[in-house]
Amino acid sequence: MMVWLAGLGLCAATAGDLEKNFAHSPDSAKPLAWWHWLDGNITSNGITGDLEAMKRAGLGGTYLFNSAVGFPDGPVRFMQPQWLALMDHTLNEAKRLGLQFGIHNCDGFSQSGGPWITPETSMKELTWTVKEVEGPAAIDLALAQPETKENFYRDIAVVAFPVPQGRVLTGQGTDTTLRGSVATAELAKLVDGKPETKALFPTATNGNTVEFVFPTPRTVRSLVCRNASPHKWEEDFPIAMEVSSDGQNFRRVGAFTAS
Q: Residue 135 contacts by C-beta under 8 Å, 6 or more apart in sequence?
C-alpha cells in the first residue's frame, strides 16, 4: 500500500525569502517522479542516464516501480543477483547526485510478487479453449490445452451448453465481405480467428471504418473488439455501430468505448 502524506503549516517569511526560494527551490520543495523499470530491460548505463536527466530537470528524486506491462522480457529478473547489483548501483548514483530515492515493495505493478511467490501461490487468471461439436451424441475427445504462464495450469471444469443458431463470422470460407478505410490485408486480420494477430489503423481526423457486407439479411448477436496494446488504460477510443439494409443509408444502433 502506498500512502502519500503532505504537511501544511504557516510560517513567517519575508517577500525577499519567497522570491529567493521560488527562483532557487530548496531540495525539500522539489518534486519526486515515478520511475518504472520495465519488464527487466535494465542496464547500469540506462540507470545513470535516467538519474542524471532527473537531476538536470530539477527533480528532487524518484520513486521506483519494478513493472511488468507486456514489453519483451529483458534479462534482469526481480530480486535476482543482477537486479540486486543494479539496485546497489542505483543507490550509489542517487547519493552521488543528491537525489532522494524510494522503492515500491513488489514486482509487477501494484501487486505482490517476487521469487518467494511460486506459481502455485500467485494470483491466477482463468484461461480456456472452446470446441464446437454436433449433437446429440456420445462424444469422446480431448480438449486443447489452454494458455499457460510459468508452466502452471490446473483444470477447473468442462462446461457443455447448446449454442444459438448461427455461426462465427471468422476464418476461411465465410461469405462475408469486408470493406473499410484500411487495406484489405489489414482488414483480413480482424476476422482470421487468431487472437495474436492485430490490424493497424492510422490516426484519422474523420475516424476509420470497417464494413461487414452480407449477401443476405443477417442477424448478428454480438461483436467483439479487442485492443492489442498493452497500454489499454491509455488508449480508450470511441466506436459507433451502424446498420444498413441497402449499403447506402445507415442508422446508428450503438456507441461504445474500447479500452
A: none
Task: For residue 221, give the nearest of 160, 147, 168 by alpha carbon.
Answer: 168
Distances (CA, A) of 219 to 190, 208, 211, 216, 223: 19, 24, 15, 10, 12
Write out pLDDT tens, residues 66-80: 887 778 889 999 889
Are residues 61 and 72 in contact, defined by beta-carbon separation less than 8 angstroms?
no
Average pLDDT over residues 102-110: 70
Among 38, 34, 32, 50, smallest CA distance to 89 is for 50
pLDDT confidence bin for 9, thresholds 50/70/90: very low
- pTM of the entire predicted model: 0.46
